[in-house]
Amino acid sequence: MRLIIQFPCYLILGIAILAGCTESTDNNGGNHQVEIPIAPGTGSITFSEVQQQVGIDFTHFNSPRNSLIPEDVGSGVGWADFDNDGDEDLYFVNFAAPFLASDEDMARASGNRLYRNDGNGIFTDITKIAGVGHVGWDFACLWWDADNDGNIDLTVTHYSGLVHYRNRGDGTFQDITSSAGFGNINSFLLGLTAGDYDLDGDLDLYVCGYVEFDRERARNRPIVAGRPAVWTNPVSYQALPNILLQNDGSGVFTDVTESADVANPAGKSMQAIFCDFNNDGFPDIFVGNDVGTADAMYLNNQDGTFTDVSKLSSTFDRRASMGMAVGDVYHHGKMDLFTTHWVNEDHALWKNESTAGDQSGILMEDVGPFTGILEIKSTADVAWGVNLVDFDNDGHLDVILANGSTIEDELTTEVLEDPKLLPQRSRILRNDGQVNFVDVSDNAGPFFQKKLIARGLATADYDHDGRLDVAIGIHTGAGVLLHNTSPDTGNWLQIKLEGSSSNRFGIGAKIEVKIGANTYSHQSVLSSSYLSTNSTIAHFGLGTAKQVDSIIVTWPSGVVTEQTDATLNQLIIVTEESQK
Q1: Which of 69, 170, 178, 396 could cross-link to 183 by cystine, CB 3.0-4.6 Å?
Q2: 230, 67 in Cβ contact below 8 A?
Q3: How far apart (Å, rounded) are the C-alpha atoms in residues 57 and 417?
Q4: Cβ(298)–Cβ(284) below 8 Å
């Protein structure tokens, strides 16, 4: 059945409801260099800053800093269609007040904000109605269907745990943190990711513990050179373990960290991601750790446990990771990995050299030095939010980086006595078609000329024009919405998954779009970037392609759905056929 749905003021999208089952195909790919067969596009990548025009008026941490580490790690943003009306809505996380604020100051502070996309280019603040305006020292947000009822739920991490909201399905949410099994978590938490690691049809949760940071001790810190000491280096603090929480199928969770062996006890973790790196059907876990600790890669053993393969996979890297993104950069059917790093450290592009389907290991190679990345990054840049997406729809994944330092600006500290962090320009890196990334920030629009303190970043096509847009959280500044205005973009296809035996949003599914000899691959993950949630709709830039030969979806359940007559430049809904 094919339905035509009218989107006001934008365009008409054909939405095909597809179902079917075929035999699984082998997604092979060896450890050899793959020649990129898809011609690069000729257009440019440009964005227009539109948050004021569309009704977004969020400001993050609108208070003076105390030079304490919880204040500086920043907060995330998240896209999701929480009301199932076909439009991507937007959530901004806030660090509501200075870390040493009194209870009275906290009571007057502004919390997180939810903006409903009205489908006409305007967003409406419905935070109070929805009941998701948590006021606290908050960091990450994750939109995910925790109880598998088709309504996307929301989890937010903060300095002393997390808050979990159940989507009632009527535009409102209920705080069920305790009844869902999260009430006893009291740690300083940052990033989080969801995936079905045990393939039982529901999503499990992995949360990053950061460091032990005592608020009362910070209040009484020593005076150095006439001002309180600067306590912003994570090396000085004890690491907190990460937490794996198993879903019982109803949205109630049990801590299985110890039995699964994924605590990452020395980590000081900032962000993690569930992703099947070796294409054996089971999601693995990659963890980005802060200064002084190497990153971690956990191989899923397919029995509820994991093996630390950080050294064997070559991802045992001490460059202080912040954000991460996955995507098939090399068009070889495997998920490559981009990681952002702290000051004076190069970013990394990890080419996936794993043998597809081999459950014995994962192998990644840092090819950053051969892709132009090292020529772009200033040693002073600190990148946080990141994504691998095709902004100009030429068939090749580009990179966007949200930059902002953690080093204090000496002028604001010594002269103005109002310590602020050094602002930096965020960047757009265009893939030239041969996995060589070119910095096109100078011509990408006014936003990329500004020096700001960016942190969280997330992408979605909020206006249904076939071009991916970007939301960015600015530390101590106004939230940003970038509308993709890139001219002369290529053809595209967007795919929304609806699971049945698998989880309802198809997280963990692998999508292949085949056009002639070329295959475009995508894996549905929750979530990458930094402290943020991207749209779960898979976006494929297809360049000058005239038609799609086939779409193949391999679901976490093992069911394979194939469609052979999809039309370009539309949103396709693919449904999983129930297992007999």
Answers
A1: 178
A2: yes
A3: 28
A4: yes
Q: For residues 534 and 79, is the Cβ–Cβ distance under 8 A?
A: yes
Question: Quick one: CA dihedral 428, 436, 370, 312, positive or negative?
Answer: positive
Q: Rounded to an integer, what distance in angstroms lies between the CA atom of residue 319 and that of residue 293?
A: 8
Tokens coding 11: 């365009």
3-state helix vs strand vs coil in the chain, percent to 5: 10, 35, 55
- Nearest-angstrom CA–CA distance, 580 and 132: 39
Written as six digits, the tokens of 219 are: 């209040």
Q: Side-chain half-sphere of 456: how many Cα atoms within 13 Å?
A: 38
CB 167 within 8 A of CB 173: yes
Measured CA to CA, the distance from residue 98 to residue 284 in angstroms comes to 37
Q: What percent of the chain has pLDDT over 70?
A: 90
Residue type, 292: G
Tokens of 192: 């989080």
- Dihedral angle over CA of 498, 82, 328, 40, nearest 10: 110
Higher pLDDT, 154 or 33: 154
- List Cβ neighbours of 225 (8 Å cut-off, separation of 6 or more): none
Mean pLDDT of the chain: 91
In one letter, which amino acid is 457?
L
Strand partners, 123: 117
Residue 569, Cβ density class (10 Å: 0-12 exposed, 13-18 middle, ≥19 buried): middle
Peptide bond into 527 cis (omega under 30): yes
Q: What is the pTM of this model?
A: 0.92
- Report the C-alpha gap between 549 and 420 in whole angstroms: 54
Domains of the chain: 2-43+491-575 (2.60.40), 47-484 (2.130.10.10)
Q: How far apart are CA 326 and CA 338, in angstroms?
A: 6
Amino acid at 425: R
Residue 539 per-residue DSSP state:
E
Q: What pLDDT score does 292 carry? A: 85
